[in-house]
Specification:
The chain is about 15% helix and about 40% strand. By secondary structure, it is of the alpha+beta class. The protein has one domain (about 25-115): Sandwich (Immunoglobulin-like), CATH 2.60.40. The strands form two sheets. Strands 1, 2, 3, 6 and 7 form a five-stranded antiparallel β-sheet that branches. Strands 4, 5, 8, 9 and 10 form a five-stranded antiparallel β-sheet that branches. The longest helix is centred in the N-terminal third of the chain and has 19 residues, at about 1-20.
Length: about 120
């Protein structure tokens, strides 16, 4: 009986973990912030695909930008098309910025730093 209880306890711990195994997503963008100006919105659509194939509904992707200690996060909202989300990002000042995308599902995607031009 003790062995059965121990086996059930182990299963209760392992089953939720294995249900998440193999979950990953890709993010496709309609544009990058290259050429963006400080203070001017960069509006971009993100397509989040589970395993690079299936559009993911119900996730909450974010675009995260950072320059030194200054950090901003911009939520992407559903567009009405499954798996497609839109974000409106404003870089508050010119200079080189790091940017990443949290896909809302499995991981943060890192991109090359981008140079943002001064406001017009």
């Amino acid at each position: 009986m003790r062995k059965l209880v121990a086996a059930l306890a182990v299963a209760a711990v392992l089953l939720p973990a294995t249900s998440l195994a193999g979950g990953w997503a890709t993010v496709q963008l309609t544009s990058t912030p290259k050429g963006a100006q400080a203070g001017t919105p960069w509006v971009v659509n993100l397509t989040v695909l589970q395993h690079g194939v299936t559009p993911l509904a119900g996730v909450r992707p974010e675009i995260r930008i950072a320059q030194g200690k200054l950090r901003r996060t911009f939520a992407a909202r559903p567009t009405g098309k499954t798996g497609v989300y839109r974000a409106r990002v404003v870089f508050p000042r010119a200079g080189t910025w790091r940017w990443t995308i949290w896909d809302g599902f499995s991981r943060e995607h890192t991109y090359s730093p981008v140079r943002i031009a001064p406001a017009a």
